[in-house]
Amino acid sequence: MIITKDNINQFIEPNFQLTMDCSDSGITGISYIPKNIERLYCNNNQLTSLPKLPDSLTHLYCGDNKLTELPKLPDGLKYLYCYKNELIKLPKLPESLTNLYCNNNQLTGISYIPNNLFNLYCYDNQLTSLPILPEHLIGLYCHNNNLPYKITEENIKEHNKLIKRKQILNKLNKSIS
Predict the structure, then answer these.
(1) Strands 99-101 and 119-121: what pairing?
(2) According to the model, what pLDDT value does residue 144 have?
């Protein structure tokens, strides 16, 4: 089933018009999302792509699909649950993001983590590095990756120092070359 303007009403929550829920519905495509939607639940389907997301979106639950990439994320997005897909990279993460669940994908790197993030679940990927992390993270789960060392809530400061040192060394090497 593909969600269109013609059948969208069956997926809009009647008591909360800002929520679209098509989870566990055998959906293979979404061609229409109303512009005012704040919460989109499309997890546990057969989606291989998502359309342009509305600027009003604050919660995106698209886990357990067959997504290979995500569209541009809205600036006000707070919750991104994109676990159990086939993602190899993430789009630019908005500064507003507080929760990122990107575990069980094929990610090899995450280039930037917003400073507002409180929870990062990135385990069971192919990550070889992580960027500077917010020191106030309360949930950090990055096991079962290809990271050179174990990163936990307890050693975030040390991790960040190491990343900063690597950045300085890279700048020095570029200036010498």
Answers:
(1) parallel
(2) 95
